[in-house]
Amino acid sequence: MKQRHVTAFADEFGNNSFDFSKDDISSHFIIASIIVNSNEVSTINTELEIIRKKFFQTGEMKSQKIGSNHKRRMSLLSELNKLKYFVYAVIVDKKKLYGEGFRYKQSFYKYLNGLLYKELYRTFPNLELKVDEYGTNDFMRGFKEYVETHYARTLFSDFHFNMNKSHNELGVQLADIIAGTLGYIYDDTKKGEHSKILYSLLKEKITGLNRFPRNNEIASFNEAKMYDRSEYDDNVAKLSLRRIFEYLDNAKGGNQDEIDSMNFLNLLVRYHESNHQKTYTRAAEFKRHLNVNREQDIGREKFTNIIGKLRDKGILIASSRDGYKIPTSVAEIKGYVRLSNSMVLPLLNRIAVCREAIKLSTSNSLDVLDDSEFSKLKELVDIL
Question: Rounded to an integer, what distance in angstroms lies between the CA atom of residue 176 and that of residue 48?
Fold first, then answer.
């Protein structure tokens, strides 16, 4: 499957310090990437310029200029939501890395370099990444060197990495706004009552929100309080998440099928996290995001195959006529089984009826299930 060529504009929030006793030290390091189909960059630049003039007059769009003026930030996000772009972000909780050798800038950035490469480039192989060349952007400079040294020559024939002045790249300015907004949502020094509202404004644009370290992520959901005891099963919820994270950690993103699977699971986790634990999300919503990196829009059959192959690998996905979700109860697992049962048994019955009709008309000389390829099916129909 041919992929669209995409352009990503990236910026960061946070710093590399682990001295959390100081008020200005971020608890999280966030890299926000704005994903745009390359043939639509010119259009979004025109639209961004109109918004820039409205909110910043002659200056650049900078999250720092908005600061804690949350009303202004919310108004800006509402305008930006009208544009055609998606957000793919990596969020690292530094406090959960403390004591693991990450206190040193070089070690911390080396960890982040490998993390961002794995998460971003395996998902968008045909990528042009643009970042700001000035300011305190040491991480992005190091990331460019990391990719060029370790991967570019052998893996990325379509790899491009450009460092430009931010005032020349409206996409980089947008990335600055989004990275700063994610800081006000997740960072301990910035988050507050405004965080939920900011996330609600941003969530429709987020196509990937990957939080690290993953080994602490399952416990971070704390879902039991959202359910009656009869509605929630801690074992089911943790098993479901654990299997998803194991798949994401081991996936290579070597082909479009695997990229689609990774993107679907990341979306499933995001909907699960954003107060959707009780809610199923319709297939159309998933497909809208999955189409970002595809030359040809994903169809119903292809989308169904993605879910089927993940289930074949042991991933637990609850489904109903309302869509899909991460299961958090035995009832939701039974709901998936019940839905499958309503489709499988009638199909088996129709095969049985067809088989009997052929046998009857041929005086039992022809059994359409006698072929070796139908041996398992024949056993099931015989039982039925």
Answer: 13
- Residue whose pair of structure tokens reads 């030359």 in the numeric block: 295
Distance CA 55, CA 66 (A): 10
> What single-letter amino acid sits at 325?
K
Q: How many CB atoms lie within 10 A of CB 11?
A: 29
Q: Is 82 exposed, middle or buried (0-12, 13-18, 19+ CB in 10 A)?
A: exposed
Q: Give per-residue pLDDT as tens, 248-267.
A: 888 877 788 888 898 899 88
Of 190, 310, 300, nearest in space to 240 by CA? 310
The neighbour count for residue 93, using CB atoms within 10 Å, is 19
List residues bridging with 93 in a β-sheet. Answer: 28
Q: Name all domains of the chain by residue range, CATH numbers in brackets.
A: 6-212 (3.30.420.10), 219-328 (1.10.10), 334-383 (no CATH)
- H helix runs in 57-101, sequence order: 63-66, 70-80
> Each residue of 7-22: pLDDT tens digit?
889 888 988 888 888 8
Write out the E strands in the chain: 6-13, 28-37, 86-93, 127-132, 160-164, 206-212, 318-320, 323-325
Which one, of 267, 271, 259, lies nearest residue 119 by Cα? 259
3-state SS, residue 302:
helix
